Amino acid sequence: LQKLIRLLQATDDPLIQEQALITLSNSAAFSVNQDIIRNLDGLSVIGGMLSDSVPKVKEKALNALNNLSMNIKNQEEIQMYIMQVCRNVESAPLNSDLQLAALRLLTNMSVTSDYHHKMINSIPYFLHLLSEGTERTQIQVLKVLVNLSANPAMTKHLLRAQV
Which CATH architecture has domain 1-79? Predict the structure, then answer.
């Protein structure tokens, strides 16, 4: 895991980055690896890939963070990327794998109300996706909205959103 994280830091080759991110994502399926990746500063390395110009690299980074977000301590670090993930949802091509990967991460990060406030500005776009997205996109955005709606503090933001 340490070598994969170092490889991500050392290379600009998108194909190598994708493969390293896929491997890290698969490794994150095991809870012991989630802690190891965090302790090796892997979350910030992977999070840094969210600003990559290659959509597939961003997508793979989102998938890795999604798997890593199953851990509360990891969520505390991943939360710093929520607004950037929301921007990825809005700037990604409609119904793209990149958009869906970002929505899946937001779904996990919105299970508890701790980080809902970071998603407020994207609520109008989430609602837009309900009318414009494919069924897969609609289902994923509904998961985020259901999580947000479970928080009474979000009620006014959800009801006042301009669609």
Answer: Alpha Horseshoe (1.25)
* Rg, C-alpha atoms of the chain: 16
**Close Cβ partners of 55 (under 8 Å, ≥ 6 residues apart):** 92, 96, 98
As a residue count, the chain comes to 163
C-alpha 141/C-alpha 127 separation (Å) is 8
Note whether 154 and 114 are within 8 A (CB).
Answer: no
DSSP 141-153: HHHHHHHHHTSGG
- Every domain range in the chain assigned CATH 1.25.10.10: 1-79
pLDDT in tens, 86-140: 999 999 999 999 999 999 999 999 999 999 999 999 999 999 999 999 999 999 9
How much is the pTM?
A: 0.95
Dist CA 69 CA 118 (whole Å) = 16
Alpha-carbon gap, residue 68 to 56, rounded angstroms? 18
